[in-house]
Amino acid sequence: MHLLPTQDEVVRVLRDTGALRDGHFEYPSGLHSNEYLQVPLAMRYYQHARMLSVGLSRLLRENAEIRAIIPELSVVTSANAGLPVAYGVCEALRARQVYWAERDEAGQPMRFRQFLEQHPGEQVVLVDDLLRSGRNLREMQELLESRGARVVAMAVIVYQPTPRTRDFGNLPLYYLAKLNASYYADTAHCDLCKAGAPVQKVWV
Fold first, then answer.
1. CA 138 to CA 43: how far, in whole Å?
2. How far apart are the C-alpha atoms of 123 and 152, rounded to whole Å?
3. How does pLDDT run across 167-182, given as a tens digit for each residue?
C-alpha cells in the first residue's frame, strides 16, 4: 500500500468489503444507477478505516493554508456515516476538534447540539464519507457560515457525482477516489430498465 492510496487501491477495498456494488439501483431521489456505494461497510474494519482516513489527511496536509492552521482547525461532518472519517482525519492531522450536526426528524433542518457554539472566524474542513448529491454538505456549509465560521475545504473518501450534485464553487475538494457511475433520470430513460435488469431500491 502506498503512503497515499491510489484510486485502484481504494476501489479494491470498497469492492472487497461489499461497500461498492454493481447492479441496477434506484435511489430515493428517483435516479437509477449501475453502481451503489455505502462507504460505512468498508469503515467497519479498523485497517481500512485507518488507511482511508490517514490518506485523506495527507491530501489535506499538502495544502499549505490548511497545514498552517491545523492546531486551530475544526473537522466537521454532516452525517453519521461521516463520523469515523472525521475522527480519523482529526486524529491523523492532530486538529483541534470534531463535531457534527443532527436532524431531530427526517425533513427537519440540521442543528448543532445545545451549547455547541462556533466562534467568529473559526476555520473548518467539512468531511464526509461520500459526496454524491452534496445536499447535506451544502446545508452544513450554510449552517456553519451563518454562525461566522469559515469553511476552507471539503474532504471525502469518494466523490461520486450525479447530474444533480451541488456546485460548491471554488471551495477546494479533496477525495481519494472518483467513481463515474451511469445515472438515469427515470425508468423511461434507464438502459438497465430497458434490458429488464431487476431493480433494487436503496435507502441513501
1. 23
2. 6
3. 999 999 999 999 999 9
- Cα separation, 15 vs 9, in Å, equals 10
Yes or no: domain 7-201 corresponds to CATH 3.40.50.300: no
Q: What are the extents of the domains in the chain?
A: 7-201
Phi-psi region of 202 (alpha: psi -120 to 50; beta: other; left: phi over 0): beta
Q: Which residue has the cell 461566522?
A: 148
Q: Which three cell numbers stand for residue 21?
A: 456494488
| Closest to 181 (Cα-Cα) out of 163, 202, 160 | 160
Name the residue type at position 66: I
Strand partners for 98? 75
**Which distant-in-sequence residues (6+ apart) come within 8 Å of 35 by Cβ?**
20, 21, 22, 23, 25, 160, 179, 181, 182
Q: How confident is the model at residue 2 (pLDDT cuts 50, 70, 90)?
A: low
C-alpha cell at 38: 455505502
Q: What CA–CA distance (Å, rounded) separates 86 from 98?
A: 7
Instruction: Tell me the angle at which helices 83-93 and 46-61 cross, rounded to the nearest 10 degrees.
Output: 60
Residue 59 banded pLDDT, cuts 50, 70, 90: very high
Distance CA 101, CA 190 (A): 35
Which set of grid coordinates corresponds to residue 9? 487501491
Evaluate whether 158 touches 179 at the Cβ level (below 8 Å). yes
